[in-house]
Amino acid sequence: MSLTDLKRRKKTAPRKNVSIEDFIEDANNYAFGQPSVVSRNRKKLTTSKHKGLDKHSTKIYKHATFSLTEESIGILDKLASQSKIAKSRLIRILIHEFSNKSKVEQDSIIAICDDH
Q1: What is the pTM of this model?
Q2: What is the distance between the alpha carbons of residues 106 and 110, in angstroms, rounded to a whole number?
Q3: What is the pLDDT of residues 8-63, one digit of tens each?
Q4: In whole angstroms, what is the distance from residue 22 CA to residue 40 CA?
Q5: What is the C-alpha to C-alpha distance for residues 68 and 59, in angstroms, rounded to an integer?
Q6: N or C end: fewer C-beta atoms under 10 angstroms in the chain?
Q7: Residue 108, by phi and psi: left (phi above 0), alpha (psi -120 to 50) or beta?
Q8: What is the DSSP annotation of 6-40?
């Protein structure tokens, strides 16, 4: 499976500084249920943060291409959508969990796997 859907995306422009008066006004708007520019910008930043890796994190991660069965891809998609975890992170978690198992447990998992 090619991990092209997990490519790093460009970071959005940094958030503009907000004056104290604007911040207080936005807090009042928020208290009255009106849209707030400050919180709207924060929401955009947090959602964009989860879209891909930033330039600093690429030093930790390395791009990889590997093959999965259609069934495995389907299961991975389902797990990712249910847990709301990125596929690449989910794969790292599964690798970590497998590596922490004893040799006997690993052999048992490999034996019951049907995609030799």
Answers
A1: 0.48
A2: 6
A3: 667 777 777 777 777 778 777 777 777 776 655 555 444 444 455 555 555 577 77
A4: 14
A5: 25
A6: C
A7: alpha
A8: G---PPPPPPPP--HHHHHHHHHHHHTT---HHHH
